[in-house]
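Page 47, continued from p. 46.
Same chain as before, 93 aa.
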Amino acid sequence: MTATVPSNRAQRWTTIANGQRIRELRRQCGLAQAELAGLAGVSLDTVARLERQYRTACRTRTLARIAAALGESPATIAAVILEDPVTRSDTKS
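Result:
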């Protein structure tokens, strides 16, 4: 069995979701996970998986559907990825 490496094309269609933020917004809307899944047109397993992790890979289409169901923009629930200060190259002299 060989491992498959995601192609660049597949990587273009994925983003990182902020699961904690999705949970917060869902609760503010008074929705159960199953209700959010139904409104967004995704599976209950998908909503549960996304909420379990602080940062998790997610299709951009799924992120957009969940955001729309919550009345938010996708940027609201996308995780912010900051530069790693250890590996960042500084230009200071």
